[in-house]
Amino acid sequence: MGPHVARKSYQFTSESVSEGHPDKVCDRISDEVVDAFYRESLAAKLDLWAVRAACETMATTQRVIIAGEYSNTPASVTVAMIQDVARKAIRDIGYEQDGFHWANANIEVLLHGQSADIAAGVDAKQPTNKEEGAGDQGIMFGYACRETPELMPAPIYYSHKILEDLAKARKSKTGDAAKLGPDSKSQVTVRYEDGKPVGVTAIVVSHQHIVPDLSSAKVRDIVEPFVRAALPQGWISKDTAWHINPTGAFYIGGPDGDCGLTGRKIIVDTYGGAAPHGGGAFSGKDPTKVDRSAAYAARYLAKNVVASGIADRCTIQLSYAIGVARPLSIYVDTHGTGQVDEAKIEAALAQVMDLTPRGIRTQLDLNKPIYARTAVYGHFGRKPDADGGFSWERTDLAEAIKKMV
């Protein structure tokens, strides 16, 4: 990567998918299971540091399969309870169709104890560092830029916003939005001039409808006002191309139309392709798994670097080895927008935050049931919640970073 002169005028596209997308149904169920482990451990006054959960979900016509590993589980976490958690999630998303219905889908739970070999690497007090090691090897990226107030790339931010606003309207069951189903996708092509987002050249929304024979034109009538409200004033022009339900009818949706799997929407979950991705999915993983927690830490640091004013764009890479606590490397790229040498920022970040798995979980307070809400509309660019959700979106390190460089 390294420093380079960025192109000034170009178009960039990102997509989002709704909570009813088959893969997102699976992400949601997997994260509900992680939350259940934390909630029940909390209620049973067990050690929240000891919670281990890895949950993969597959969903197809009238069937959900939940597999994975756990350890240190409270007795209250039973197969029946996990089935109930999955049904409630499917009901909340809104599936009550013949091919996929919260009340009568067959839900199979195949969770089992965590491998002793993995547990040893994570839990053991390693002779080298006297603390928990990373739950796996891998690379994680974080990114932030000035394109939106939340310091997210504009294309993914607005792709999410369109679907989130449509889902709120659909669930409120008011107006024509009540004719829409849970499954949808969006895509926004943003035009940049002088490196800044200034308009939208193309908009794609494919939205399931629960009223049969709803024409593309009728769906556009329902969807268009939400798209216009979600995008900044003046971004849509007479030249903007619209593709709303371009294939016509979209009546059969969700896992009945297409099989879903946890962890298949990693670009939707992060930066919409505007930044690199380390390859690890987030949903269904407890925060000992650096795929999730270190990606959150990398976003947190990148956002704080940009919030501090020392760069307009920042990409951060962290890397880990299984059983080893400290990151093997920290890499910072400010894409030619930095006011400070990148090596200086790297040194400051290593000081300003403890990037061991335990340090990340402490700083971001991750031993909590805060994960189900991350499973749709992206893990980044969200508002920090009062109960500690989206803690990695805070900008409370900006001042410290500024002082250190």
Task: Summarize the SSE layout with pairings.
Blueprint: E1 10-17, H1 22-43, E2 52-60, E3 63-71, H2 79-93, E4 96-97, E5 100-101, E6 106-113, H3 116-123, E7 138-145, H4 154-172, E8 180-193, E9 196-209, H5 216-230, E10 236-244, E11 260-261, H6 266-269, H7 290-307, E12 313-320, E13 329-333, H8 342-352, H9 357-363, H10 398-404
Parallel strand pairs: 3-6, 9-10
Antiparallel strand pairs: 1-8, 2-3, 2-11, 4-5, 7-12, 8-9, 12-13
Helix pairs in contact: 1-2, 4-5, 7-10
How does this model look, in words?
The chain is of the alpha+beta class and 405 residues long. 31% of the residues lie in helices and 24% in strands. It is built from 10 helices and 13 strands. The protein has helices at 22-43, 79-93, 116-123, 154-172, 216-230, 266-269, 290-307, 342-352, 357-363, 398-404; strands spanning 10-17, 52-60, 63-71, 96-97, 100-101, 106-113, 138-145, 180-193, 196-209, 236-244, 260-261, 313-320, 329-333. The strands form 4 sheets. The chain has a 4-stranded mixed beta sheet. Strands 6-3-2-11 form a 4-stranded mixed beta sheet, with helices on one face. Strand 9, helix 5 and strand 10 form a beta-alpha-beta unit. Helix 4 (154-172) packs across helix 5. The longest helix has 22 residues, at 22-43. The protein starts with 9 loop residues before the first strand and ends with a helix. The model has no long low-confidence stretch (mean pLDDT 94).
